[in-house]
Design a protein that fits this description.
- It is a single chain.
- The protein is an alpha/beta fold and about 280 residues long.
- The protein has a single domain, classed as Vaccinia Virus protein VP39 (Rossmann fold, 3-Layer(aba) Sandwich).
- It starts with 9 loop residues before the first helix and ends with a strand.
- The N terminus is likely disordered.
Length: about 280
């Protein structure tokens, strides 16, 4: 990625409204920066790379899964834009990839699309402010909040000023929920986030699974925990059970992200044990 706020002069950074140098803890690994490393990005530090390399030693296919998951996000947004959805709440944004973010895809189809990004890593927010400038016909906003506190998102003034919550909204949590353990009640979090949305809203999710390589994933999550990153995998049925009542999972149901509306159904795809992500899209009745 080019154009990082850390590559800009103070004068250039001053042009980004509200930008201040973030207080970034680089002494320990962080999941978004590890994910950036898997994707070949440059916004990561030594502890992130060390933890990521330890994880890759256990499961070399992590990079394959990360790329497949990013591709799923882009197809998901394209699919939703094709359905006429022009409002997106992207929670757990992760470090932006220039030209490959939610607003890039949505506004290429519908320039009036409005996107709110949410993350709790200051480095993600710094990049977001600097890079995620959308089409002038639409709007983008950024909320510094943790998904474990849904009200900090729902009550944030940037949400109400950017999205019209009386009209359908697509809520996206891509590669997020496997970092929320059962004791944090992920199903309740999703219910709280989506309760007030109108009929016709959508919920797009992806989630890591150990269904295809349980022993490997047991070691992998031990590696993450040693790096201070908590989480858990879930089976296909456990993942589907997180969808709130009143929402219907749309075709093709819960499937590997590589099998969810592929761009080319005839193209070869990685084996399931190398992908390790389920994806789904649900619609509010």
């Amino acid at each position: 990625m080019s154009g990082s706020v850390f590559d800009r002069t103070p004068e250039q950074n001053a042009l980004v409204e509200g930008w201040t140098p973030p207080e970034i803890d680089v002494s320990r690994a962080q999941s978004a920066r590890m994910y950036d490393y898997y994707l070949g990005g440059k916004t990561n530090f030594a502890p992130d790379r060390e933890a990521a390399e330890a994880a890759l030693a256990t499961f070399p296919s992590l990079r394959v899964g990360a790329q497949a998951n990013r591709a799923f996000l882009l197809r998901l947004v394209r699919h939703l834009a094709g359905l006429g959805i022009t409002q997106f709440l992207d929670i757990g944004t992760g470090i932006p990839i220039e030209g490959r973010n939610t607003h890039d895809v949505a506004q290429a189809i519908a320039p009036e699309s409005r996107v709110v990004y949410v993350d709790n890593d200051p480095i993600v927010l710094a990049h977001a402010r600097a890079l995620m400038t959308g089409h002038p016909a639409g709007s983008t906003a950024y909320i510094d909040a943790d998904v474990r506190d849904p009200d900090s998102i729902l009550d944030h003034p940037a949400l109400a000023s950017t999205l019209d919550l009386t009209r359908p909204v697509a809520v996206l949590l891509v590669a997020v929920l496997h970092f929320i353990v059962d004791e944090d009640k992920p199903a309740e979090i999703l219910t709280r986030l989506t309760d007030g949305l109108p009929s016709g809203s959508h919920l797009g999710l992806s989630h890591g699974t150990s269904d295809f390589a349980p022993e490997v994933f047991e070691k992998l999550y031990e590696t993450y925990q040693q790096a201070g990153v908590s989480g858990q995998t879930r089976s296909r049925s456990e993942f589907a059970a997180l969808v709130p009542d009143g929402w219907e999972i749309t075709a093709p149901g819960v499937d590997l992200v590589t099998h969810w509306h592929p761009d080319d159904p005839e193209a070869p795809r990685p084996d399931a044990e190398h992908v390790y992500f389920y994806g789904l899209l649900a619609r509010k009745r």
